[in-house]
Every structure is written in structure tokens, then in C-alpha cells.
Amino acid sequence: xxxxxxxxxxxxxxxxxxxxxxxxxxxxxxxxxxxxxxxxxxxxxxxxxxxxxxxxxxxxxxxxxxxxxxxxxxxxxxxxxxxxxxxxxxxxxxxxxxxxxxxxxxxxxxxxxxxxxxxxxxxxxxxxxxxxxxxxxxxxxxxxxxxxxxxxxxxxxxxxxxxxxxxx
Length: 168
Fold this sequence. Notes:
Structural class: mainly alpha
Mean pLDDT: 78
Strand content: under 5%
Radius of gyration: 28 Å
Largest sheet: 3 strands, mixed
Order of helices and strands: EHHEEHHHHH
Low-confidence stretches: none
Number of helices: 7
């Protein structure tokens, strides 16, 4: 955050929050994450340029479709800081995520299809279950439990009531 004089073109954090519908704490978080920038007045108050509203809208829309904050920051770093981003700037950035979103959609469709098969079997066949044992990977490792952690301590001694009788 740099120190600068306030001009009428700058917005306070409250104004950005009101106009964007984002909580002040979220704006502070976005700033700490390097997603938006502010300057400070001589009395140490934050001021945001008007293009911050578009950046916040882009951040929220990107988060809504599941884009990570790191990827959003990387995209925003490609935008010019000296001018308001254009629709072409936004289109270029969002197009770069299309492949990732298409892969997620394909993965979710495959999960949906596996779930349909699972509901059909009623979990009566763990050998062929697409959700708990995809492609029977566990079966190739041999018989017995595969997901239980190995025992790291000795088995408990049987209780006296259940111990076998010595004279039998």
C-alpha cells in the first residue's frame, strides 16, 4: 500500500463494500492476498481506484465457478494497472480457465455416472463398486483389508471372564 493524496475518483473501503456487495473484511483479505490494491491517505485510510469494483466482481465470479485465489491473482497480475480492464481483457482471462473447467465437468459427469451404477447395485458388490474400489485396485493387492492402518501396538490380552479354562 502506498501513500497518496485522496482524489474524488477514489473510493473508501466502505464505498467499495457497498457497491460490490462484499464485506469489508473480504476486501481487506483480498488486499492481503494481492488481488486488489489500495493507497493510503495522510490519515492512513485506505482508498481504492474505481477499477477495483471490476476486479472485485471478477474475483467473486471466478470464485463462484471454483477458481482458486492463486489462479485469480495470477490472472489479475496480467491486467494493466494504468487503465480499467476491457471486456476483451476479461474474455482472455476467463478463456484461459476453460480447459480446467471442462476437465472438472467431465470428472463430475463420470462421478455422476458411477454413482448411478452404485445406487443400482445397492452396495452389494464391493468387488465391482466404482466408488469404493474403482477398477478393483485393492483386489490386485491380494486378499484382506487394505485400507486399515497396520497395528502399531500388541493386541490386548483377553479379559479374565473370557479366558479359556486351564483344565479344559
